[in-house]
Amino acid sequence: MKNKKLLLLPLLFSSVFTGNLFSQEQGVIPASNGDENKNVLCGGIERWAVKVLTDAAAAQVNYTPKLTTMDSLIHIPTNPSTIAPRMAGIEFQNYTITCKITIKKNEDDNDYHLVLSSGGETMVGEVPDPVCSAAASSAHVNEFIASRNWVNTHIGTGGVANVNIAPVDVTGVSFVDVYHGQTGAAPNQMEIHPILDIRFSAATGLTESSAPAFRVRVNPSIFSESTNFRITSDHEILGACTLEIFSVTGNRVKELELPVSGKNDINYTFSRNGLTGGMYIYRIRNNQSILYEGKIIIQ
User: Fold this and answer.
1) Number of H helices and number of E strands within the chain?
2) Tell me: the pLDDT tens digits for 216-272?
3) DSSP per position, 43-97
4) What pLDDT was estimated at residue 180?
5) 164 three-state secondary structure
6) Which of 16, 63, 156, 286 lies 20 to 30 A from 262 at CA?
7) What domains lie within the chain, and their CATH numbers?
């Protein structure tokens, strides 16, 4: 999966259509080089459906988390393959392990790549990008979104070579990757992929409210004509903020400037203005870095 270049498939729209679509919303960012409508497929090779839980066998996975240890997972005998369907037994279980996150990387395929450590040995955990068309169609897209937002809040939106946070409980489905020099890979290539939940380990005494956080409220998240985005933060300094709206096929259909008050507050009414009904993924950026992601439904 790593070392695969992100596939960007531009969609061809007439200049009239593009002009109409992006002029309908006040505050829209002008089109540049046709990039506003990129289709984010992400990966799409090497058992991608298994990685984002859209394969035919995904419904048979036992999603009730099974407590285990990293040591147990990384010593299970495996037979890595680039073409095999979901591997019987090995890839049909959701696990929870307690570990430290030591490195966070943003991969070319837009996954968040986390190196999980037990103190001596390591393995990889990955969170798919919910904007990617394959991940957006997954029944577990809400869990991808929540896990990435946790990482954004507690670790950061960019790459972090030396993560220094308290131990965490990571929950996700086991996956056997092939060796391609990935940072932190287990000896048997076992990964937690995708990660479906991250939280501070109960043993730390930390709760999610213990760490700096910003608050995002979209009311209502299911709407016909308009909804309100309210973003506030006691810690995050908001600069040039934008709201991106993506269809489930990975097309960025709108990109809008968000007005910031006092460097820590956004109160913005979003109007559908020509968007068809359906599910959309939204992404809020602060000075180009991803701040938050979520889902809205237009009726």
Assistant:
1) 5, 15
2) 999 999 999 999 999 998 766 899 999 999 999 989 999 999 999 988 999 999 999
3) ---SSHHHHTT-STTGGGSEEEEEE--HHHHTTS-----SS--SPTTTTSEEEEE
4) 86
5) coil
6) 156
7) 15-39+212-298 (2.60.40.1930), 49-208 (2.40.50.140)
